[in-house]
Write a structure and sequence with these properties.
Elements lengths: L14 E9 L1 H6 L7 E7 L5 E3 L5 H8 L5 H10 L5 H5 L6 H16 L4 E8 L11 E8 L10 E3 L12 E5 L8 H10 L6 E6 L13 H11 L3 H16 L11 E2 L4 E2 L2 H10 L2 E9 L3 E2 L2 E2 L2 E8 L1
Parallel strand pairs: 1-9, 4-5, 4-7, 5-6, 7-8
Antiparallel strand pairs: 1-2, 2-3, 3-10, 8-14, 11-14, 12-13
Length: about 300
């Protein structure tokens, strides 16, 4: 394991191990590794930020996100997660109810905070430009590596630095759960805002529900046995865990606590403390813990802040 964390990545306080976990085998395979990788799920004693101890290496990140969701990506992932379908990701492509729901959720937060117009809005990781809020916007810019065909009246720039002096609002939705260093990520975004400009952050609320048993050595030993057994056996235990999560239950006693793409789990307290620590004031928050995307129960937390 690499880049290990031993204190809270959001506030620096002490952390408590709450579960033993295994890195998703499809990540291990797609990054060219053979043996199972094990880690732990930690929870901050101060701000309640939860995160997997293991941080992904540059090689692992490149393997996961270069050619992201290509045919090879789906082939490898489906071999370990037969239930994983393109529909999960396609739910946010093109015209769909899920896109409308996400845009509506963000728009309501902005308008309720009195933000009904912005000259320049930048969607960091904004795909093809389908997620801009429905407020009065003069210029829509995405910062995204996908190189997809953009929507009408949307432009693309390579970095925030290119448009630094004219940004009124940065949107960073469903990005922060993937990053190795949350403080570095948010510091970079906020540094490109002028005082009085806004940042909207949206993250899923999908931390696995675990019990004390999952932090025990007995569970760690069982997880090791499952992870080194047949692929079919691992998939069966993993599937049972996924079903439990879908219905809001804790991971079963013999289920799998698994680190996939999401490294970080925020709640209202942790993300508010982090953003305020970095020089912003929280204006409005909203949460829908049971929101579904592409049939998956992920939840949604939105936070609007203004730079001091």
């Amino acid at each position: 394991m690499v880049n290990m964390a031993n204190q809270c990545l959001a506030c620096g306080a002490s952390v408590t191990k709450i579960a033993n976990a295994v890195v998703a085998p499809w990540i291990t395979e797609i990054s060219g590794q053979k043996d199972p990788q094990f880690t732990t799920l930690l929870n901050c004693d101060n701000c309640e930020f939860s995160f997997f101890e293991k941080r992904f290496s540059d090689n692992e990140m490149a393997a996961m996100y270069s050619g992201y969701r290509s045919d090879n990506y789906y082939a490898v992932r489906n071999s370990w997660e037969p239930w994983y379908r393109r529909t999960v990701n396609d739910a946010y492509s093109g015209e769909s109810d899920h896109v409308d729901e996400r845009v509506s959720f963000m728009t309501n937060i902005l308008i309720s905070a009195g933000l009904q117009e912005c000259k320049t809005v930048v969607d960091f990781g904004g795909d093809e430009g389908q997620f801009f809020p429905e407020i009065d916007i003069q210029e829509r810019i995405v910062i995204d590596v996908s190189n997809k065909t953009l929507r009408k009246n949307v432009s693309r720039e390579p970095s925030l630095g290119v448009v630094k002096d004219k940004i009124d609002l940065i949107v960073a939705a469903h990005i922060a759960e993937h990053v190795n260093d949350p403080i570095d990520f948010f510091t970079n975004l906020i540094s490109h805002l002028n005082s009085g400009s806004y940042l909207y952050v949206e993250v899923p609320m999908d931390r696995p529900s675990i019990k004390s048993h999952h932090g025990s050595e007995k569970y760690a030993e069982m997880l090791s046995r499952i992870s080194t057994s047949s692929k079919r056996k691992f998939i069966a235990h993993d599937f049972a865990s996924g079903i439990a999560r879908q219905f809001g239950f804790s991971i079963p006693k013999r289920g799998v606590v698994k680190q996939s793409e999401h490294l970080n789990y925020y709640n209202l307290k942790s993300i508010s403390m982090l953003l305020e620590k970095l020089g912003t004031t929280v204006l409005k928050t909203e949460a829908t813990p049971n929101a579904k995307v592409g049939g998956l129960r992920l939840g949604r937390l939105g936070v609007l802040v203004v730079k001091n």
